[in-house]
Amino acid sequence: MEFDAVIVAGGGSTRLGGVDKALVVLDGVTFLDRVLRAVEGAARTVVVGPVRETYRDVEWTQEEPPGSGPVAGLAAGLAGGHQPVVVVLSCDLPWVTAADVTRLVDSLGSHDGSGLRDSNGRDQWLAAAYKRSSLEQALERLGDPRDKSVRRLMAELDLVWSEPTKNGDDVDTWADLDR
């Protein structure tokens, strides 16, 4: 099934001391490039955040105003594209793979979305495949996306989750790299 990808990469990385998470290098590859490899099969890939050097061409956009949160970023990234499925990933998921993305897309079925759980069993809304129409309706219900929580955006969606996996782990602190 064809899909579009939206990569949310505009956060301030305050718990990493202000270091740009997208450019953190793990095993010789930036976090952003690792996530972009996971969605290589996308019909269209949009990265939401400041333009950075990446290993392949992508489209760039920015939430308005910049720094207004991941829901605003998701809305900005979703604005274009046309595939009925959208894979949404944050740039701080260095262990996510193309196989994970394929499983997420394939397991959507009649659900609004299919997401990864991290190794602690937490739902990762920014590591999921969604039906575009479901996301668009959720954004419409929410109204202004600035500074809104992802949990609130997804509250009414029918989501299915993977078993806990390291591939769903995000990196918020330097200690998270040692898990």
UniProtKB/TrEMBL annotation:
Entry superkingdom: Bacteria
Keyword tags: Nucleotidyltransferase, Transferase
Record-given protein name: Molybdenum cofactor guanylyltransferase
One MF term in the entry's GO annotations: nucleotidyltransferase activity
InterPro entries per record: MobA-like_NTP_Trfase, Nucleotide-diphossugar_trans
Species in which this protein is naturally found: Kribbella yunnanensis
UniProt domain MobA-like NTP transferase: residue ranges: 5-157
